[in-house]
Amino acid sequence: xxxxxxxxxxxxxxxxxxxxxxxxxxxxxxxxxxxxxxxxxxxxxxxxxxxxxxxxxxxxxxxxxxxxxxxxxxxxxxxxxxxxxxxxxxxxxxxxxxxxxxxxxxxxxxxxxxxxxxxxxxxxxxxxxxxxxxxxxxxxxxxxxxxxxxxxxxxxxxxxxxxxxxxxxxxxxxxxxxxxxxxxxxxxxxxxxxxxxxxxxxxxxxxxxxxxxxxxxxxxxxxxxxxxxxxxxxxxxxxxxxxxxxxxxxxxxxxxxxxxxxxxxxxxxxxxxxxxxxxxxxxxxxxxxxxxxxxxxxxxxxxxxxxxxxxxxxxxxxxxxxxxxxxxxxxxxxxxxxxxxxxxxxxxxxxxxxxxxxxxxx
Length: 362
What we know:
- It is a single chain.
- The protein is mainly α.
- It contains 16 helices and 4 strands.
- It has helices at residues 3-32, 38-59, 65-69, 82-90, 101-105, 108-130, 135-154, 156-159, 170-190, 197-207, 213-237, 242-260, 266-270, 284-311, 316-342, 348-353; strands at residues 76-77, 168-169, 273-277, 355-359.
- The strands form 2 sheets. A two-stranded parallel ribbon has the order 1-2. The chain has a two-stranded antiparallel ribbon with strand order 3-4.
- The longest helix is centred in the first third of the chain and has 30 residues, at 3-32.
- It is elongated and about 100 Å long.
- The model has no long low-confidence stretch (mean pLDDT 89).
């Protein structure tokens, strides 16, 4: 399997891996900086894509299990710098004959060791630029990455195969570590035209001093992710008064807890968001008013109107009223979501309670 084919497989899988990584990345950035830098996002996803390509280059192509079971070749090569002896002994290279130089460069005895150096070279670049690692740290992390690759091969892809289908080679550890170190040294000229990571983070913090619609939405979704499993657990394990229990938990989570967390729900607290009044102070009465109004507008009133349709006698008008209630609720949620996400206008409950969301990022 050629290198380009392996990269195609990595490219195909990358969107799935990126999607799984996106939520933790968003939460971390909002927690630490209050905003998400497009440049930092690009660099981060490039790093993920690189690691995915490197991993696939190590494990692919995957042989059949029956073929691996029949293998009798050695699984480990523990002689350091054996690649150099193989090059001198088996390649076309002859130091006394310059005509052999170019031919030797095209043989596997040369380009396989060089590939092992280039495999981790970007790793060293990323570590120094993005994580600001020093040379010693890069040596350690490059060695550990290489050891992970080699153990993956030796274990037969984590014991899926009866034995290793590729050679555990100490030379790979040496060459991969060397590649990471070379990446450390060439990092500065390569990243010269890219903004420094400190500058990117500084700009993100400045931008994070204002609570954006996406940040508010991230807090809402994280709260839902915390709230819903707990609420579902209670619905399953408590047999009586489920509706009242659910309502009580809503009030506890979205109203009572914020009164003790400076107006923040658990998710808002994690994302450095607080509720302040028009004087930029924490006013528990106004916080309580805000929470009650939001609960009434988006939960109590729509569900009450929906419940009223069941009171109407079974007739054609009942279905019409029910459809009207559903449509009005959908429009309310849709318009509110658009306003919440894409505008800086105050929501109705914010205007009445005279409160706003305040970023605590410093």
